[in-house]
Design brief:
Blueprint (H helix, E strand, L loop, with lengths): L5 H6 L5 H11 L2 E4 L5 E6 L30 E5 L2 H7 L8 E8 L3 E5 L15 H9 L6 H13 L4 E5 L3 H5 L6 E2 L2 E2 L7 H5 L4 E6 L8 E9 L17 H7 L4
Parallel strand pairs: 5-6
Antiparallel strand pairs: 1-5, 2-4, 3-9, 4-10, 6-9, 7-8
Length: 251
């Protein structure tokens, strides 16, 4: 089967993006992050690592914004998977690294973009699920669209989003977008558990949740890398698998 994933194509155009953003807000479930559910936030070389405010969102827009933050929206990034936090921050053995364990002080309403939309009665070419997953496995060229999703969620009353880590494949070892006779495993209910296991969720909370008293710092620790191990495969010279797959819009 050859064709384009239409919702992804529509997200790329400002003229058709709004309708897909509305589908995303309506189609994905709500996840409540409750007090007592902790997650991690790393900082490399903070000025005052013992100060809990260092682990809040930046007070001013970044000169190099991330996947979801922008001039109009501050975002605190974190994860319940510490190893993904380390990789997301591009930590090296020479870095001065600190990790804060955080917990909500109230229920936080998150839009769960990590969920599989297995009840979609559509083909791969019409699949919102495929479009969103492709978007979050893509590189920096996808950031402007992801930021529009974050802004739409914030305007829709959400406190933040759960979204698939770009490094899900490296963490889980799973290959995305596997198919069976041309049908994506993501659309086959009996494969749902296997496909979910390939997705490592990241947490993005809007605003400055520590200073706004929505999130509290429960502990701060220095983080030291004790061991790093890589599992690798060889491939043909000149083939950049991740970039090629993330940019593809073919099913």
């Amino acid at each position: 089967m050859v064709g384009e994933v239409e919702p992804l194509k529509a997200l790329e155009s400002e003229e058709t993006r709004k309708a897909v953003l509305e589908r995303i807000l309506k189609g994905y479930p709500v996840k409540i992050l409750r007090p007592g559910e902790s997650f991690y936030r790393l900082r490399v070389g903070p000025a005052a690592p013992e100060n809990g405010a260092e682990y809040d969102s930046p007070p001013k827009p970044s000169d190099d914004p991330g996947r979801l933050d922008s001039v109009d929206l501050r975002v605190m990034y974190g994860s319940q998977d510490l190893q993904v936090c380390i990789h997301e921050c591009r930590v090296t053995a020479d870095d001065d690294v600190f990790v804060a364990t955080l917990a909500p002080k109230q229920d936080l309403k998150l839009l769960d973009l990590t969920e599989l939309l297995t009840e979609e009665q559509v083909t791969e070419f019409e699949s919102l699920d495929m479009a969103v997953h492709m978007l979050f496995l893509a590189g920096k060229h996808s950031y402007p669209i992801a930021r529009e999703i974050a802004l739409a969620a914030q305007r829709g009353g959400f406190d933040g989003v759960l979204y698939p880590s770009y490094f899900s494949m490296l963490r889980s070892g799973g290959i995305p977008f596997e198919t069976l006779t041309g049908i994506s495993h993501r659309r086959i209910p009996k494969f749902a558990g296997r496909e979910r296991a390939k997705i490592i969720p990241n947490i993005a909370i809007f605003g400055r949740p520590i200073s706004e008293k929505k999130v509290e710092v429960t502990s701060i620790n220095r983080l030291m890398l004790a061991r790093v191990e890589y599992e690798v495969r060889f491939g043909p010279v000149g083939y950049q698998w991740i970039e090629d797959e993330s940019k593809a819009m073919e099913a």
